[in-house]
Amino acid sequence: MIDYIKRKLKSAPIVAFIIGEAISFSSCDFLDIEPYITDLFTLDTVFSKQEYAQAYLHNLYGYIIDNGSYRYNARPNTMPWGAISDDCVPGYKRGGTGQNYAMFCNGELTPEQYSGYDRWDYFYEGIRRANTFLMRINECKEVTPIRRQEWIGEATFIKANIYFELMLAWGPVPVVPNEPVDFDTPIDKLMIERSTWDECSNYVEGLLRQAIELLPDARLDVSEIGKATKNAARAVMSRLTLYTASPLYNGSNSEFAAWKNNAGVPYLNPVFSMEKWAKAAAAAKELVDIKPNDLYTVTAKLNTPVPPVPEAELAPFPNGVGGIDHFHSYKDMFDGECVQASTNIELLFTIQNSDLNDYTRYMDPGMIDGWSGMFFPQRIVDAYLMADGRDINNSSADFPYEASGYTELDSTWSGERTTDGFTLVTGTRKWYANREPRFYATVAFNNSYYPSTSTRPDLVGADGKVAKYFANSVSGKEAAAQRPSALGEEYPMTGYLCRKFTHYEDSWLSGGRRKKKYAINYRMAEVYLNYVEAMNELDGSHTVGDVTVSRNQQEMMRVFNLIRHRAGLPGITAADVSNKAKMRTLIEHERLIEMMWEGRRYFDIRRNKTAIKHENEPIMGLNLNARSTAPDDYYYISRATERSFLYKVFTTRMTFWPVPKHEIDKNYNLDQLIGY
């Protein structure tokens, strides 16, 4: 970071200001830069012409995290959050894959070893470039005042995002000067210490408010989808203020009491503030008022099941579950079926040119030549509800959870078997029947059918288009050991894969194709849940700016039930919302299921101080040594032992990442995280 601060940007030449590497990481096709931009430029040249300045701005988007991928070696704007939380079990440690997720899960991360995810310098490079743009864009006389205002809003939005990502990984971080410093600046002026979390949060909040003032309401041209808008900035504000109001940052952090700056001020505020929850509720309400029931939905098909909900909840969505297909209304957002992000009212900010298009191979089964490197633990599979909203331990006679036996007939709903529908095939364990639509949209269990319509019929193997995970099956461990690229590791080591991001056309076999996908960084479902969570914590009425918020139980029920009804589940009741503790449990569960593998869970369990419980639970799975000739043996639940690193551990120091040693060595004022 010091190197970036010290660089005298006003007069130094810059090589391509964004080199070819960064070009490939831009947010959308419209961000691509012509090849001649990769020549040598001075900053004076860059800001002398509108097209050069625009190219500089467009490439700043490449510093925003691509939420669709967790592999470090694909591009520098990825982080491992979705792979290392308690809702996922990564199957990689070391070796040819380079994806050492186990380092994070097993508590092996050190200041010297990041396994490729040291983004500290990269993020501060992005901040420096954003500052350069903000400082010099007024020099470009070709830019109209209206466009300049919008561009300043975009650069400010990007800068806020980068700071927030730094905070998520490292907690309180240094806030660097907006203007570059000269080479002759005394060294003690360069030794910038961390700001407190509240100082960082307030600073980023200020940036977002500036961005909201300057950004447009929407992008009218579909070619500009992926650029910032007012609502995108409001979404970041909602997440930021919710996190800052949460226990870790709001009084429940005694384990960090000794972590203080040079003035003796704790980096995490030890004093609870109800006003933080009010601010979070107000930030979410601002967006909810603009988009009161804006969830993506797909019209019901002829064979869409009618959800088993009370009669009053059969009304058309958003007042009930009626008129929509609940499977596709959820899944089509993630697998590429909703082709244009511009047609999805739920989306607030997306990465159009996402590594998700390739990363899905790590989730797909071997029978379509997937790499099967990421798994669900049994606990997460069991967290999904039954179709009538009950949990598996309290199922009803109409929708029972059956612990033994197999289905005797194929059952297809929400479309055609050979294309877009979901099929529960004959011979599937009955404990996978009668579950909620999001379960089928997300979890790939043994005997899961993949239409993979782009697969040529002559390439279909012994299991056809059914993913079977028995040891001797095409998608099992013995076949994985025979695939040269798999290192013998790429099979479902807990008995479960994820199909949330896999389209019915997708296949990695020869001649197969994949539906183009975009990564969703922010969507309204999260904001609705943010709003309910913040309201749930309020006592009394609070006014933040011109917004008044309170624990409005009717509004809590309305907003929460938008999520439930879109998922085809019964809504929560007045009795539920009257109980603050029960609502905390319901909110935590709904956030887990609704945003499964979207990178949110890692931070939810840290900010709410539940990581010590969830990440220290044993990882359970099925018997991957069972053969197809003895299927009952497969469904024996035990601790996952396919690899020694299939466990998670959480200690206090794993709340944040340690600052890389190379930064501590350069800056004697930069405090290391306690425990390192």
List keywords for this structure.
25 helices, two-stranded antiparallel ribbon, 33% helix, 7% strand, globular, 676 residues, 16 strands, mainly alpha
Could you explain the architecture of this structure?
The protein has 676 residues and is mainly alpha-helical. The strands form eight sheets. It has a two-stranded antiparallel ribbon. It is globular and about 75 Å long. The model is unreliable at 4-40 (pLDDT under 50).
Q: Tell me roughly what share of residues is in helical segments.
A: 25-40%
N-end to C-end Cα span: 20 Å
Which range does the strand content fall in? 5-15%
Sketch the major β-sheet: 2 strands, antiparallel
Low-confidence stretches: 4-40
User: What structural category arises from helix and sheet content?
Assistant: mainly alpha
Average pLDDT metric: 91
User: What is the overall number of helices?
Assistant: 25
Shape: globular
The total count of strands amounts to 16
In short:
The protein has 676 residues and is mostly helical.
Helix and strand layout, with pairings?
Layout: H1 2-6, E1 13-15, H2 20-23, E2 40-42, H3 43-46, H4 50-60, H5 81-84, E3 89-90, H6 102-105, H7 120-136, H8 145-170, H9 187-190, H10 197-214, H11 230-245, H12 274-290, H13 326-331, E4 347-351, H14 356-359, E5 374-375, H15 378-383, E6 411-413, E7 422-424, H16 437-442, E8 443-444, E9 448-449, E10 466-467, H17 477-482, E11 497-498, E12 519-523, H18 524-536, E13 542-544, E14 547-549, H19 553-566, H20 574-577, H21 580-594, H22 601-607, H23 611-614, E15 620-621, H24 631-634, E16 638-639, H25 661-666
Antiparallel strand pairs: 1-2, 3-5, 4-12, 6-7, 8-11, 9-10, 13-14, 15-16
